[in-house]
Amino acid sequence: MGTATGIIKALNxxxxxxxxxxxxxxxxxxxxxxxxDGYQFDPTTGVGIAGYKGRHMLFHDKxxxxxxxxxxxxxxxxxxxMVKVPDTWKHNKKAIMPQIDYGKCVFCGLCVDACxxxxxxxxxxxxxxxxxxxxxxxxxxxxxVKPQVQQDSELIxxxxxxxxx
Amino acid sequence: xxxxxxxNSNGQMPPGLQLEKVDDRIMTLNVGPQHPGSGHMxxxxxxxxxxxxxxxxxxxxxHRGEEKxxxxxxxxxxxxxxxxxxIHDSCNILYPYVLGVEDLVGIEVSERAKYxxxxxxxxxxxxxxxxxxxxxxxxxxxxxxxxxxxxxxELLIDLLEKMTGARVTHSYFVPGGVRNDVPPNFEEVCLRQxxxxxxxxxxYADIFYDNPILKARTEDTGVLSTHDAIRLGTTGSxxxxxxxxxxxxxxxxxxxxxxxDVHTNVLKDGDSYxxxxxxxxxxxxxxxxxxxxxxxxxxxxxxRTKLKPNPKGGDEEVFRRVESGRGAAGMHIxxxxxxxxxxxxxxxxxxxxxxxxxxxxxxxxxxxxxxxYWSLNYWPVEADR
Amino acid sequence: MSVxxxxxxxxxxxxxxxxxxxxxxxxxxxxxxxxIQIVLFYMxxxxxxxxxxxxxxxxxxxxxxxxxIPLIKxxxxxxxxxxxxxxxxxxxxxxxxxxxxxxxxxxAKLQLRVGPFYCGKVEGLLQLAGDGLKLISKxxxxxxxxxxxxxxxxxxxxxxxxxxxxxxIPVAPGGWVxxxxxxxxxxxxxxxGFFPIITILSxxxxxxxxxxxxxxxxxxxxxxxxIPLILSLLGVVILTGTLNLSEIVESQASFPWxxxxxxxxxxxxxxxxxxxxxxxxxxxxxESEIVAGWLTEFSGMMYGLVQLGSYVKxxxxxxxxxxxxxxxxxxxxxxxxxxxxxxxxxVPIPNFEGDPVLTINTPGLPLFDEDPNEWVQQKRxxxxxxxxxxxxxxxxxxxxxxxxVIFFVLLPRGVFPRIRIDMLLHIGWYKLIGLAFxxxxxxxxxxxxxxxGPEGFL
Lengths: 165, 385, 458
Fold this sequence. Notes:
C: mainly alpha, 16 helices
């Protein structure tokens, strides 16, 4: 009776899995941990450093307002526009810096690849929701703030199955 | 004032029009885009009782004009754009593009970059196939088979996110290599998770592939013979389930597939059960390939060959193809010496398989429609581009 | 979410409260109080201790501890309590709600995920209440060309028939069944035969293609599995010689019938899964070719009623299985564990003057009968058990057995895919009827060999 053994084996497999631990990540209480600090790019070697592509971080003391990030993004998503900033820096005589519209950004990271001055990195922050569309446009001073993330949950694989702990 | 169009004296209609008799027995069902059993596509099904008389697929709901939009971007900026047809399997749909541009510009890629590309491509294939298997389960009413592949996919997406920085649409391959190196202890983490993933895959046999109800439901339905499979031009797992031994990784190897031991899975039946089993066997094979590639990868080396600022090819065209999750994905690039491609044609695997659908569904029972339709490994977004 | 909540203003808040109070007062005065007057006018008031129990007398007695007990006892023995609360609809709805919760969490554990865990602080206990509130708040959309009277009445008929089914099943010894019929099993078959009619009515009146196909499939499925359902129970009827469900349970005091009729139990279980439209037989309901079958056009609380009726039907079928094959309420008496002294002398609870007043054989104590001579005695051992002990223990055994059967009904949902209509009809008409006949032959063989039945030695 091939059918009967098949049915019993399927039921058996189902009951066995009642003892395996659940795999779900309980999101707001547990958040996944990422390797490193975020995606970065080294213009001298021309190679990126592995990391999560989240919200950007702009270093005001390195950005010269060269607009290469905006030019790179024009072909992809048109999410970067250059705006005037009130503070004057020695290396940024035009006093312009990028503002990023996260309603349009696709988080591809080509702007980070384009920056030759080590000024634009990506960080681990991905919780960017807001109630208005204008709230999604991050000005250069907002991009300067280092994100406070509390991510500490990892994938654990042991005898009782895999779970997020 | 409307004019009535009737057949002429020979019984023929004007070109492009078809005369259809409205019959009391035949009911037209619109398995449309808003339906839990169809994806982003419409199938117009005419049924007579329980048997399908005619099935007419209607793709095109997700057409975005990707090929035209690719003509205004240069070769590097095309990368986030051209990976959008299949977001899970983005490395595999981008692979022929990257290989083609490397041929046009004329650069060599280092060994380590080739191995990393192979690992990323195999991981992407498994990710896509798990998603496909999940939807196959839910079409047949098996909710556990929806949750298990979707959950086990997380193991691999976790690896891809450590490697590339994004869970889907990675934008990882560039002409010349890959964008960033793998993180420090990636090899052991990858090995551990891929081993556990393989163990989980073998659990599917008891509950799904050896389940007598599944076998009774999908065996001997939608049989595609070997001759028909070759004549209709199908590709990928559909072809291998009908007895044809064709895998681009062995027939026209690219990157480092010549040095890896790839075994092609072939089944001779050609029915829906075989077509649903082949991707699972392919996933077990991919785990082997990843393990071999992790062993043989050179421990250090450059991963990206530097390109000149605005890469452009000469006045030539190039065609490369690659074995993706759905079949042969190809890319035909025509360049005329500009930084933008002159014309770009994506040849996806799913569109090639769609031609078999009206042929297979004629005469089938209505209950077999989801099983046959989704077993053709059809991804609507990629077919419409 | 694009709505920004307005700022709080005290004037608006007070106005809202006064509005609500105004409406509550109007509704109570115009509707609730006349309804209560009408009910009290027509209700039969019981006579307790020689006094007619009007509403004012009832309220007076409620505050006197020595008088509360006859009041509660008369309430428990009334018909209304039996229909609405204990072996009737309230009990079934409670178990149905528990089944839905357990089903979601058990399937989630099987599928390696967490079920509902947010609503209700502990692992999603209040999720069902949240779903119910959501369904009530949705608009009920009726298709323009549907047959409106039939379409509105179908879910209500469904719940009504499921409740009628529940009313036939005995739960505890001592006559705790809403309708104690001598032809109880035949009445069960009659009620089960009504379900396909409701399904095809609601499918046809929706006047749309997908419900049409779903309704025809549901009709085929339910009708073709009624015959194996009835035939598999005939074995037990032959061996007990009665159609009364309470007597069938009492005949299983020493052994359940499943030991002698395992094939009948399997046939009944499979036919039960098909009548309930559970996976693997849920073609009419949740398909990927016919959107939701005959439930497609239901929205809002109509869908909620159909789901409630479906789970109440699940409880009723499981209870029927337990009654006929697993022994109903029989089992060792273990609760409440009372010893002799409490039975004869009682538990002293002082009243206001300090005299002990409460014993187990107090007349009027609910669920414990007055006359010790009427206490039912158990066959094993010489201990006398009060009817209250039998009641509680029997109920607990019944609930445990029903929960076990419901677990086995819920398990195939996680393990099997859906079956196709022609395979389903093949199983229903060929295989199951054959096995049911084999079962009847076994029953006849056991009867004529003198092993079981009225003359048997067991």
